[in-house]
Amino acid sequence: MLTKTIVAVAVLGFCGATTAMADNGHGRGNAYGRGHAPGQAVVSARVVGVEPLVRYVTVDRPREQCWDEVVREPVRPLGVAGPTIAGGIVGAAIGRQFGSGNDRDALTLIGAVAGSAIANQRAIRNGAGATREVAVQRCEVVNDRVREQVIDGYLVTYRYEGRNFTMQTDRHPGDWVQLAVNVRPVGYRVRY
What are phi and psi of 14, to 5 degrees? Predict the structure, then answer.
């Protein structure tokens, strides 16, 4: 009886391994893989379909946004020195005409100082309200909200022994997947 059981186990094991290798005629061999229990064979099955498992997320994408802005800025009076000197000369000439003797020099000096001060204030006042328009570039960082695809894994369809099966993987499997096949007799008692 023990001999019949051992022969039956061997025959069934051989048939199971041959069928696993066949993969409908396209098997890529088998071997006992690391981490598998005794009686488990590792076989390859052809991948017939891969569908990415996609999820959409909303993210903020920063970008710099710039524009030109027209601003008014005051014009600095450039001609203040010239009018001040001219005012001093005119004031000195007027002061000199009104004086006589020793007073003439003092009135010339007073006329020059007064003429310079008046001409200086007038030149500043004439240029103080003047402005010009200048284009200034302004920039700021803004966030655009965009939807992006994120792949969470793949739904893989593979063909084994003429039937299609599916599984989920973290990365794209390529053309083949590895399967651990448990080869054990059915209907017989096995003693180890």
Answer: -65, -45
